[in-house]
Amino acid sequence: MERLEKRRQNALKDWIQSERESYSEKQRRVKCLCGSVMQSRRQFNADQQRFDTRSRKLGEDEETLRNEVERLRPQITSHNGVQEAFYRDRKAPEERGTAARSASEAALQQFSENMNAAKDALSKAHRGSTMPKTLSTQPPPAALSPTTARDEIRGISRGGSPHFPTGLQSAATFPNQSTGWLRIVWPSY
């Protein structure tokens, strides 16, 4: 009887010891799980804080971008207008080319008319409008030798000579069959 009681007590002690060890193991596992949960919680809080910060920064960036768009809106509108005008002009290159050719032809025609008018004025001037001729029957000055005549011509080209003095006018007398002598007077500049 005593042996059975002792066996029962030993079995009870073994069971209690086993339960204590099992409880300790479970308690250890619970502590590990609690530590993991707390670590995850801290990680979640850090992630939430970063997310809030990023969201606030994105909101600020969005506001800044919206303000920048409003500031650039007039330039964008102007650019769009220029772009539309550019594409509109590209649709009618032949009309622009025809207009440019017409303007060039008109300018060339006006230039030709001006040149012809200038030629006519120059021709009239050479025909006597600026070099009047007067006839005279008076004999010429003393006869000139070829060398003297050459010097006289050089003197005239320089503005005067002993027989053709300088002044407001220069003159030369040449033989003429119909009138005897032809005296030409022209301005001396």
Mind explaining what this structure looks like?
The chain is mainly alpha-helical. The protein has 3 domains: 39-76; 92-129; 131-187, no CATH class. It contains 3 helices and 3 strands. It has helices at residues 2-90, 93-129, 146-157, and strands at 133-135, 169-176, 180-187. A 3-stranded antiparallel β-sheet has the order 1-3-2, with no helix packed on it. Strand 2 and strand 3 (180-187) form a beta hairpin. The longest helix has 89 residues, at 2-90. It is rod-shaped. The model is unreliable at 129-146 and 152-169 (pLDDT under 50). Residues 125-147 are annotated as: Disordered.
Which features would summarize this protein structure in a list?
189 residues; mainly alpha; 3 domains; three-stranded antiparallel beta sheet; 3 helices; 3 strands
Brief summary:
With 189 residues, this protein is mostly helical.
